[in-house]
Design goal:
By secondary structure, this protein is of the alpha+beta class. The protein contains 8 helices and 12 strands. A hairpin with a 4-residue loop joins strand 9 and strand 10.
Amino acid sequence: MEKLTNLNFTKIGDWEIKGDYLDYIVPNKNNLLVANSLYVFVLNDQGNEKIVYVGKTTQTLDKRFYGYIRGNGLSTNSKIHRNIKKALNEKKEVKIWALLDETPLSWGIYNINIAAGLEDAFIEIEKPLWNGGKTETEIIEVQVEIPNKIEQNMFPIKINKTYYELGFINPGVKASSLLGKHNEPIKIIIGKDNLEISSFINRTANLNKSVRINAIKDLALYYQNNYKLGEIATLQVIDKNTIQII
């Protein structure tokens, strides 16, 4: 891994299997809080190491890696989840390296994102197997174009001040059609430890009869610890009485 070290990449952790799920083990939690990162998964097969995936994120690494734990959401999450799990079940190691862009560069008045600039070059030269020749950005853009693939059971919410301080969820009309009746119980699954929060479905608070899940203190704390005001959270309807933040 001399090449990665020479490019100022740092090995920050490893993937492992915990029960039915994956988990990322990163001893220095501060490394997970850096945004604008280029990250690399390195497969170690009995001492033979090779780069198998290159990804870029404007989120923190903690938020990005959470999508791989269960493979929910976009199919790129599911694909990488399956690949990591298969490798670990075959007694191979999957190591996590990252270029933590903590020193901003600029050209005149413009900031330069090193991670974005290196992603294309890395994939062109290294040809990581799990990327399939495409950047993560290209993979996601292609998937978004597939009609109704995401919209069927997923919905975004913008974390405004009311959500942030009180802990509401308003799924909207489409997602509400997948949920239960007024006053039925509902579970909200949050965090990489899949913490379950209990509440009730309210279909009288909104004029269009769409669902509102009223203020929940634990949900407000989750928003505050994981999002900034104005950011978008993606939620998934698991069944008519369960929602997960992914």
